[in-house]
TrEMBL record, chain A:
UniProt pathway annotation: Amino-acid biosynthesis; L-valine biosynthesis; L-valine from pyruvate: step 1/4; Amino-acid biosynthesis; L-isoleucine biosynthesis; L-isoleucine from 2-oxobutanoate: step 1/4
Family to which this protein belongs: Belongs to the acetolactate synthase small subunit family.
InterPro entries to which the protein is assigned, alphabetical: Acetalactate_synth_ssu (IPR004789), Acetolactate_synth/TF_NikR_C (IPR027271), Acetolactate_synth_ssu_C (IPR019455), ACT-like_dom_sf (IPR045865), ACT_dom (IPR002912), AHAS_ACT (IPR039557), AHAS_small-like_ACT (IPR054480)
Gene Ontology MF annotations: acetolactate synthase activity; acetolactate synthase regulator activity
Protein's recorded name: Acetolactate synthase small subunit
Gene name for this UniProt entry: ilvN
Enzyme class name: transferase
Amino acid sequence: MRRIISVLLENESGALSRVIGLFAQRGYNIETLTVAPTDDDTLSRLTLTTIASDEQSEQIIKQLNKLIEVVRLVDLTDGEYVERELMLIKVKATGSQRAEVKRTSDIFRGQIVDVSAANYTIQLTGTSRKLDAFVNAISEFTVTEVVRSGVSGLSRGEKALAL
Amino acid sequence: MLSGADILIRSLQEENVEHVFGYPGGAVLHIYDALFKQNRINHFLVRHEQAATHMADGYARATGRAGCVLVTSGPGATNAITGIATAYMDSIPMVVISGQVQSHLIGTDSFQETDMIGISRPIVKHSFMIKAATEIPSAVKKAFYIATSGRPGPVVIDIPKDITNPSDLVPYEYPKDLKMRSYMPATKGHSGQIKKAVNMIMAAQRPMIYAGGGVIQGNGCEKLVELTRTLGFPITNTLMGLGAYPGTDKQFLGMLGMHGTLEANNAMHHCDLLLAIGARFDDRITNTVSKFCPQAKIIHVDVDPASISKTVIADVPIVGPVEWVLSEMIDIVGQVIDQRARGHAEMLASWWEQIEVWRSQNCLEVKTDTTGAIIKPQQVIQALYKFTKGDAVVTSDVGQHQMFAALYYPFDKPRKWINSGGLGTMGFGLPSAMGVQIAFPEEQVVCVTGEGSIQMNIQELSTCAQYGLPIKIINLNNRALGMVKQWQDMQYEGRHSHSYMESLPNFVALVEAYGHVGKQVTNIDELDSAMEEALAIKDKLVFLDVLVDPEEHVYPMHVAPDGSMRDMWLSKGVRT
Ligand SMILES: Cc1ncc(C[n+]2csc(CCOP(=O)(O)OP(=O)(O)O)c2C)c(N)n1
Ligand SMILES: [Mg+2]
């Protein structure tokens, strides 16, 4: 099952490498990873997605909790949550394709953020599945570049991962 | 105002560090100079940094306090790695201070630069990279706290040379208390879970207690004995847990696992309730996990939540310090023991009857040589036991000799059996014995080794000479990497690929060259007297080179792959 694990980490050098090292060392996989400081500059927030069985994800969470710099963490997929990912995608668009690419982008509520004579760069946010669907839909055109931010997420409602 | 080097030494003094085990080099010269100018901390100069870590480790295992190591950057740091990994695998508290190249040179592949934080990351509990001298006190305080609390483990502090510069003075203050919002090891167990566990314990028909090194690390041995005696249950200890429960007690079934006794492994396999305490269901215990304890409900007590349900799912997990949890259990058991269900005593008695049948097979009986000359390795351990009255601190290396020591030298007290169980580090025996002897100068400290293992850190005989450490080294010399050879006999049709020790040194001459006493024993008739004499020499290191039967195997031994715990080889070609 796909898990979204969100971690509050001491904003110290070396902390991130411990998290990544843990995954490599114990043979857990990382599908996506994003990390940035939070409103509290002593903390950074790291979100990662992984594919793991129940037992595996229990171990992952326990092992993450053992890292001294991990302050608190949550498996968002344990409850209701919102997730978003950002994608920038550069597509070749010339002649009649320009209109078609634009239309496909509009259907997915994409925004064209850069235009050149032969290319559109489209920005899209949504769940990873939505981004996958867009990549799929646009693949009839020539895609030159794709960059995705990795998943960020928050629990729905009152629940919060905070100190 | 003090320099970083002085601050480091002062901080170590604040932590009541008595001994530092180390080796100097460029990046730690300022620190060594600061050491020179004080006299509260002793420094022991090893001959190889690996030995410094094992000495600190032996000191820590024997005392329960953190061992402290000081090494230089680059090769000094990398040489320490094996010892750090050894401590990590057995959850031993240790603080390793490594020098680093000057801050401005980091990342430039400068002379003797190595990324110590990176290299050690998977084998430390935590590590600190120091960026300013003012950070040293809090890093040292945290390092000792982290190393010794919760599930203990090694901590590395990496200090660039410029930070210890004697001409850069900064204010010094040692923090009184310590706040870490992200590290709060469990201080109690969950009472509800403990009650639930006790209910199951009281209802069990074929209970079994399985206790590991965590009981020793967590200072829970007295409580373990009290609980076990109150309940009247059978108990086994892991290789790491030997001594947690008295080895000569009737309720003790011996060690379990790959080379465990018939009775311990069988009782594990057939029990209907397993109380696991400070043990981690290692693959050397369980044999095939899917066949492990097929009828048992499992209660698992451990201070490390990640150890619980990692390989074997626990029915009742209890996270907490073993000492605390055991005390709580004893209280609750005390309240209900008299109301034990009628018939329970009979059930327990019939379980014991079954166990006695297994025990009566006497799986550790030694088949002595019929010609009456060849020394069996087990006989050496028995002689050692006899002449130390079972009261020595015994360290070991890794191989057959380690298993013979574990099986034939019952330990009645904790912290008397010192060995590398998790990593299985050959070369651990001698330096760890040195650490123990330094901690307890009056104790009889014996290193049981093999001619393979001893050569992995034999240079430390020189350190022993320098500090006058009167260790007794018992070399079970089978002229082979015996454990490897045994596996080759059993699984590779006797093809002994590189398991012979050719061109062995003349050990007696070698130890004499270092200024110690050496003696070779070749005949069983000389064994007792040689052992007695060696142990009687109180002020010198004695090396007893005992030529033992090179054909001997360690039994029992789990049948693998696909075997359960009760599937064992009992002697060559004979299995359960
Ligand atoms: C550093 C290291 N290298 C290799 C091994 C693998 N190994 C385990 S036991 C053993 C043989 C040990 O030989 P010896 O010390 O003579 O002990 P014996 O088994 O003969 O009693 C070896 C090579 C190990 N445990 N540690
Ligand atoms: Mg040998």
